[in-house]
Amino acid sequence: ELKALLFDVDGTLADTERDGHRPAFNAAFREFGLDWEWDVELYGQLLEVTGGKERMKFYVERFRPDYRKPADFDDLVAELHKAKTRHYTELLAQGGIPLRPGVKRLLEEARAAGLILAVATTTTPENVTALLKHSLAADGADWFAVIAAGDIVPAKKPAPDIYLWALQQLGLAPEQCLAFEDSENGIRAARGAGLKTVVTVNEYTRDHDFTGALAVLSDLGEPGAPYRRIDAADEA
Ligand code: XBP
Ligand code: MG
């Protein structure tokens, strides 16, 4: 019997990457006097690595062989990430990023039906609570029984750890839950934890490999703007 819905955040609840996280990283780089600038296309490549700190390190390794790392590089990355979180949560506080189509309706209907809601994401906890507060409802964070986020587990998606941690906190088996994801890293994490997974794609993820998905959809749909079933369309 279905007991709980588990949601990824970035790309699934809201399209946060291109116009949210990306400009927040760039603002942090400028603040620290770095000539790093992530455009929309490059950012798509950087999304291969989940987690903001991990993504900055990946950028330096892969794209900036010219950059001379200071001895305290890890500390610099941590400071940059704090600044990035500040810029990002400021943007969210201005109501800067709406939820994706159908998300609020599904959350409301699931609650009304007595389903438990949870979050499993690699993003920083403050980012999740800010999005839920400003884009869902003032008490939006309270709608969720468990918010599994960020560095709470060391191995980020595509590792299943964050989903396993959330399931443990919920005291539920994977068969009792359904996960919602938007990316290949995300579905690998959810499937790795044994979860059935519905995928809603976005601009950055529509060409990803969603092997094992229960369904791949354009979005969750709204009255008058139904979702499209992308996996079925591919096979037809
Ligand atoms: C989301 C991410 C996150 C955000 C940035 O992946 O990769 O890293 O881009 O978050 P998923 P932080 O949707 O698969 O969880 O900067 O707070 O780490
Ligand atoms: Mg995601």
From TrEMBL:
Keywords: Hydrolase, Metal-binding
Keyword Metal-binding among record annotations: yes
Pfam families: Hydrolase (PF00702)
Hydrolase keyword on record: yes
InterPro entries: CbbY-like, HAD-like_sf, HAD-SF_hydro_IA, HAD_sf, PGP-like_dom2
Signal peptide range in chain numbering: none
One example GO MF annotation: hydrolase activity
Family assignment from sequence similarity: Belongs to the HAD-like hydrolase superfamily. CbbY/CbbZ/Gph/YieH family.
Record protein name field: HAD superfamily hydrolase (TIGR01509 family)
Native organism: Sulfuritortus calidifontis
Organism classification: Bacteria, Pseudomonadati, Pseudomonadota, Betaproteobacteria, Nitrosomonadales
